[in-house]
Amino acid sequence: QRCFVCGEMGAAITCQEKGCDRSFHLPCAPEGECVTQFFRLYRSFCWQHRPEQAVPATPQQDTTCVICLELVDDKKSYGTMVCPACQHAWFHRSCIQEQAVHAGVCFCCMHCQNKDQFVMEMLTMGIRIFKR
């Protein structure tokens, strides 16, 4: 299979959406804005079929990431996410992924401390949480 992100052969991951034949390498997934869910069925999705947050919140002007304190995009996107519980904690995908790696089983929203809803949403959105 040819990777739709880098164009090289050997792509082993195929989008799980019925009728979609996009394949990609796991390391190419972030660049292609693909989501791989590292729980239950371990499903993967291309940029067009990836899950999106259903939270109706949008960031206010000049909203910053609660982790790095840099500005986030002006809407939810692949790179900008929000806590589904409090809808006030905004963060960059790369920042929350790094936080998940360091927090392990203690991973929760840094703003409201919600764990259950927050963790399930992050797993669905492709954030890998390491259980040490």
Description:
By secondary structure, the chain is an alpha+beta fold. It folds into 2 domains: 1-50, Herpes Virus-1; 53-131, Herpes Virus-1 (2-Layer Sandwich). Helices cover 15% and strands 11% of the residues. A hairpin with a 7-residue loop joins strand 3 (35-36) and strand 4. The radius of gyration is 15 Å and the shape is globular.
Q: Considering DSSP H and I runs of 4 or more, what fraction of the residues is helical?
A: 10-25%
The CATH architecture assignment of the largest domain turns out to be 2-Layer Sandwich
Rg computed from alpha carbons, rounded to a whole number of angstroms: 15 Å
Please provide the count of β strands.
Answer: 6
Helix count equals: 2
CATH topology of the largest domain: Herpes Virus-1
Helix-strand makeup class: alpha+beta
Keywords: Ligase, Metal-binding, Zinc, Zinc-finger
Protein name: G2E3 ligase
Pfam family, one: zf-HC5HC2H
Organism: Pluvianellus socialis (Magellanic plover)
